[in-house]
Amino acid sequence: MSNYVATVVKIPMIQPIEGADKIGLVQILGENIIVSKDSDLSATYLLFLSGTQLAPEYLKANNLYQKSENNADVTKKGYFSDKGVVSSVKLKGIISTAFLMPISSLESIVNTSKLKIGDEFEEIAGFKLCWKYEKPVKLHVHGTGNPVKKEFKLSDLIVKGQFKFHDETESFARNLHKFKENDIVVILRKKHGSSCILSHVLVNNKLSWFQKKWNKIPFLPSFKTVDYGYLWSSGKPKSRLVKGISTGWMNPNESYYSQNIWKTAFDDYKHTLEKGISIYSELVASNIQKGYNYGHPEGTYGMYVYRITKTDEFSNTVEFSWQQIKDYCKKYNLLHVEEYYHGRYGDITSSNILKYLTDKYLGKKCLDCINKNLPDEGIVIRFDGNLNAFNAFKLKDKNFILKETQQLEDDTIVNEES
Q: For residue 305, which of 329, 286, 321 has the smallest C-alpha distance?
C-alpha cells in the first residue's frame, strides 16, 4: 500500500501549543497535525500525508483552493494552490506533517457509510481521491529519444523472475503492529540521493534473423536465447523499465539527469557483480540532491548499499541478511549505509517506540554534507534474517519532510523519483 492514501481516523485529545489560542496539536500514526482547538473529537476524519495530491473535484467541493474562483462557493477561500498538494507547515515551532478533513467532506461525492477506522484507500467507489504528487521534471535523453511503446514489457528483455524493482518503503509508524519483541531488526541511516540497482542475471538474447533461422535447423547446436547479462536501473522508474542492459539495449525514455548516473555506477562497479547478484543502493552527490553530498567532493559520487539479493537460474531469489551484506561489501570494497542498531526489537522497545526512535535518531543535521544545516533524512528499520522477503520501513525527520514538501510547491526541477 502506498503511503499517499486517505486513512480513516479518530483524533485523540488535542494538546495545547504554547502561545497559540486557536490551534492545538494531535499526534496520529506518528504524524504531528495542527488542528483547530474546536475540532470535534467525536467525528471521524480522513488523514492525508504531506506530499499527497488531492483530486480537484474534492478540493472544489470543499472550497479548499486559495483561488476562490476554483471553489464551488466562489465567496470562500482555502489554502491549497492549484497543484492541490498537502504541504507541511511550521506554526509556533511545531511542524505539521499531515492534513485532516472530516469524513463528511467526501459524502457529497461518494457514499462513505461502509468506511471504518483504519481503512486506507486511494480510490473509493470508482472515484480517485488522492495519489502521490509527481513533480514535472526537466528531461535529458540517454537512449534513442523515442518513447517506449506501451506494449513493450520488461519480460521482453529479462528472463521472468530474475529481476525486481525496489518497492516504495512504507511508513514505520503505520506498521508498528508488524513488529514483535523477538524479531531481529536493523536500524539504518536513510540517505537522500537516487536509488540504483545493478544486476548480473539471466537476460534474453536478441538474435539476428539468421540466428533465429539457424536455431530451427534440427541436430545443429543452437545460438543461446538466454544468457547471463548485466543491467542497471533506478529503483522505482515510472516506465517500469530498466535504464540499460549489456546486450546493447538502452531505455529510450528521457531522464532527469544530464549524466546517466546509473550507467556510470555500473561501469565503476560491474566487477563486484557475481552471477545472480543484484545490488540495491543509494547514489549520492551534490548534483544528485543539492547539498546532500555526504562528504564526496564535487565531481564524484558515493554508492551506498542497503540490499543485496541472489537469484538462481530457476528464478529463486534469496535476500541477504544484513551481516551477509556487510561481508559482501567488505569483499569488494563497497560502501554500505550506516548501521545504528542491530539486534532484538524488544531490546529497544520503550512504552513509546516512536518517541524513543525520534529522540535518539532524528532531529539531526547532515554534518557530512557540504551544507551542514541541511536536515538528515531519517532512518530505515528493516527485518533481518528473512531470506524470502525484504521488509523495511522508514521514519523521516519532520524538518526534512518540511523541506521536501516546500520543494514540491516551488518551481524548482527535482529528482525523477523519490
A: 329
